[in-house]
Write the structure tokens for this entry.
Amino acid sequence: MKVYTKKGDDGKTFTGASERELKSSKSAELTGSIDELHVQLGIACSLFREHYQEEEIYHLLQALISKCLDIGSIVYFVNSNNIQSTSKLLQESFSESTTKKMEKYIDAIEATLSELKEFIIFDSCNSTGMALHNARTHTRRMERFFVDWYQSKEPNENMYLVQRYINRLSDLLFVIARKYGGDGTPRSKINSII
């Protein structure tokens, strides 16, 4: 398969819809943000592997990267009106049990951290912690694109599963970041020189 097809030279791309869409469309913006998150999670995962020897968290990060592809597939299936594939993937990848597993990780990791009583400044984080925080901010951006994109689609009662997953993902990345080099400095401890 060739890397270049020249089909996108006209500023349009295929997102699963019946016709090619502008690369600035809601679908293209969303799929682009999913790709950005995929890469940012990959960077965080690579840095984690380089600096920490905790296989469970490493494999968790790998699984989160894989879920990006599932979100991209959901976008494609919804755009192509493939209701059967959409429903199947929603139930398989974004079920209640997936959310519960994420919440268990969040609770377990958070129990090892000091309680947050104020905002933290990301001034003293290591590269792994910052990459995880960056992935968290990419998650929030992708969430905004997802909500905007989905508002323009036919209602599907199961799409809240993806929304719930994305929301939990940013929470999970936050606690993982704090635990592994991204705890930062409490704002009250910053010298106010300006």
DSSP finds six helices and four strands in the chain. The chain has a mean pLDDT of 90.
